[in-house]
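To fix ideas, we close by showing one paired sequence and structure record:
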Amino acid sequence: MLFVKNIMEKAPDSYKSDLQETIYESLTKLLVPIDRVNTDEAISIKNLRIISCFTD
């Protein structure tokens, strides 16, 4: 079973890497809406398809 939690529409409060921080800063500067969900690690295409159902 794949864990998927509520949709969030803002960047995370803390970042896991410098790259992640740069990406969220760029999206914010470009006024690109952010939709993200907390999930278990998605290790297959099947899991990514499931996750995408929650953000479409």
Summary: The longest strand covers residues 4-8. The chain is about 40% helix and 15% strand. Strands lie at 4-8, 36-39. Helices lie at 18-29, 45-55.
